[in-house]
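Margin note: ligand = zinc ion.
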Amino acid sequence: MNSKDKSVEMAAEILLDGGKLLRDSCPICRMPIFERKDHVLYCTTCNRELVRENKEPSQEVEPSSNPIQEKINSLSEQLRKEQDPQKIIEYANLIKTLQELL
Ligand SMILES: [Zn+2]
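Resulting structure:
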């Protein structure tokens, strides 16, 4: 059983269900987190809901001198706009692979 495939599948499900990929990353695994359509923040990698902080979500953008991080950011942007489920999975996979290189 491959948990990575599962998290990508879940990510695609959330997106197709009207959720969105956020700029924020999971405090535990540092992977991008999602907001489900019920406004619950969710980390598909940890497979857990995240508590939204009272203050507005951290907008801190780390200085992106890392080309891999920059690529992840731009892929995330494309993933955000993508409608094709197959492409969404491809982007999600790419992002996960890049994240592992950080
Ligand atoms: Zn996580």
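Helices lie at 3-16, 67-81, 85-101.
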